[in-house]
Design goal:
mainly alpha, 3 helices
């Protein structure tokens, strides 16, 4: 059951991470120009009333996009956790080996997936617990 089963789980998890990258692509495309505009407006030492209002509107729009992104990440975490619950054997003796193999691989997968590069002060992180059969994906930073 060992390596073949681990490889099967890794393949399924990889597909879910790639799907997350695909599903969040539009969110990132919408956020990029808003972030740039907000950065430009932030450079103005004496913003007009319209500029101040625009900054607030941009922040609200970016906060909504961030919530949408985290929602997608949460859904992906749930799907990955379900994979873990159905594919990982219940043999407690195998848990340490699975954890040792899967945890660093999972973190690397999230860090290296090209579709998940968010730039600036944003990044995704994640962790996996074989014992709890649970995976997490967290968006660190703000859009």
């Amino acid at each position: 059951m060992g390596d073949k089963c681990i490889d099967d789980v890794k393949n399924n998890v990889t597909k879910e991470i790639q799907l997350l990258a695909k599903n969040t692509q539009q969110i990132c495309k919408k956020a990029a120009p808003l972030r740039e505009e907000a950065a430009e407006l932030a450079k103005n030492k004496q913003p007009s009333a319209d500029d101040k209002k625009r900054v607030v509107d941009l922040r609200k729009a970016l906060d909504k996009l961030q919530l949408d992104y985290q929602s997608e990440a949460d859904e992906t975490s749930k799907r990955i956790s379900k994979i873990l619950q159905t594919k990982i054997p219940n043999d407690k003796d195998q848990v340490p080996d699975w954890q040792k193999d899967m945890a660093p691989w999972y973190r690397d997968l999230i860090n290296k997936e090209p579709g998940l590069k968010l730039g600036k002060d944003l990044r995704l992180s994640g962790d996996i617990s074989i014992k709890d059969k649970e995976a997490t994906i967290i968006l660190n930073g703000k859009f």
